[in-house]
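Appendix B. Extra example for self-study. Work through it before the problem class; the solution is given directly after the inputs so you can check yourself.
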Amino acid sequence: SYVLTQPPSVSVAPGTTARITCGGNNIGSKNVHWYQQRPGQAPVLVIYYDSDRPSGIPERFSGSNSGNTATLTISRVEAGDEADYYCQVWDSSSDHAGVFGGGTKLTVL
Amino acid sequence: QITLKESGPTLVKPTQTLTLTCTFSGFSLSTNGVGVGWIRQPPGKALEWLALIYWDDDKRYSPSLKSRLTITKDTSKNQVVLIMTNMDPVDTATYYCAHGFLFSSSWSLDYWGQGTLVTVSS
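Solution. Structure tokens for the complete assembly:
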């Protein structure tokens, strides 16, 4: 089955840019979705189809996807962005199943 | 306004069968391109995708759990049910249901329930 690899943690200072990667074999050929999960809360979709933002998500959140890596970029990071972030794809191979990455803890220093 | 809420037992014994219900509002599960998925998260661990049911009653399961899972829908009641057999302590987790939408052969989950914690213990 398809595997998505994320770094366990990323740390940045407020006001800087955070980049969270999601690696997978030829992931650029798939649509990648990103979720933010604050402690004790349900996940929230922040980017879908590689780079689209749902309504209500700040423009500071953006996404890209090419080759073997998809990236979630958060500009002008705020304390409230501290959370776990998960990438997700739909594996349309023989499994036809959803796949989540292992998650990345974003710490705002 | 789309909302989803999970319900079911908070405690099950090993080897028992778990039945969870997702009751939703604000959309119809008979609408083309719409689905409802189940996802779980063991304490302190990552999200794990379990199953998804399509508007046309097609169903997809996690390959590793497929033999233990059944997902069904009752469109008239706006409910989706997930059944998981042979529960084990490692299945202790918060179980979420979520509204899915399909575009370009890919599902994303744009609305989530609050989740329900299920503990497996004797």
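Self-check: The beta strands of chain A are 9-12, 18-23, 33-37, 44-47, 61-66, 69-74, 83-91, 97-100, 104-108. If your reasoning did not lead you there, revisit section 3.
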